[in-house]
Amino acid sequence: MYFVLILQLIICCLGETKLKLNLDEFFDNTDIKLLSFSPTGQHLLIQSRNPSWNSSSFHNNLWLFNIKENKTKLITNNLASFLKVEWSPTGNKFAFLINEDLTITHRRASEHHLYLYSIISSQIISISIGNNIPFALTWSDNDYSLFFTTILFQSTNEDKNQWKNVIRHRQTQTNEVTTIYRIDINESTKITLIKNISFFIGELLYVPLLHKLVFTSVSRVIEQIDIIEIYSIDLNNSMFMLRLTNNQGIEQDLKLSYDGRHLLFRSFTLGSDR
């Protein structure tokens, strides 16, 4: 089914007459940022980005395409692009984040929300997560619990003071903390702290077979490139963290094999496009 759909899209594109673009058309182009099939294969999520000249910004759109009915529905044009949209295990829901005022002042004062769209009811559910801003997200083995990460930011005054001493500022960038939470949404919302990690987390993945979380580390300074690896924690005993890789490269795009027994990822080195 996937191959037929993609082939049809290619044929349609090739069948159209190529016209020269004027400047207005060139700057009004739409970028496709994400294509994600549901686990059932019946729906396709499309994330696109196009300029909004009236607001001097961009629309980050999330579309839901029903493959069987050949219908497209706009979910939001204000998607938070830094958090990847994630399908639930059954494919009946997907989780996403909507852009809010993410300035540092607002970050501490306001309540943020995680959003779930139900394929069955065609409704969006808003879940309060306090002043936490998710930066990575993964579902558990059911549709009623998720794991997400947040970053412990410094205050504006602290950050300004550290910038006065560049060396000290760069040292503190390696000591910022990521917190992993579990959120249960079956009847009432319950948020549980899992673990504080002494580096930034780029991607998060749940491994049902072992009841573990696997994640990638991210460094904001080039001097700490050696910490960019893959790690895991056992949710039965989250005190201990295990480093899974020791590569001279950057790991990303974590995936589980079909049987859930193998971890797949891409790795590339600086200066390489592989």
UniProtKB/TrEMBL annotation:
An individual GO BP term: proteolysis
Domain of life per record: Eukaryota
The keyword Signal is annotated on this UniProt entry: yes
Domain Dipeptidylpeptidase IV N-terminal: 38-105
Gene3D superfamilies reported for this sequence: TolB, C-terminal domain
Signal peptide positions on this chain: 1-15
Keywords: Signal
InterPro entries, alphabetized: 6-blade_b-propeller_TolB-like, Peptidase_S9B_N
Protein name stated in the entry: Dipeptidylpeptidase IV N-terminal domain-containing protein
Organism classification: Eukaryota, Metazoa, Spiralia, Gnathifera, Rotifera
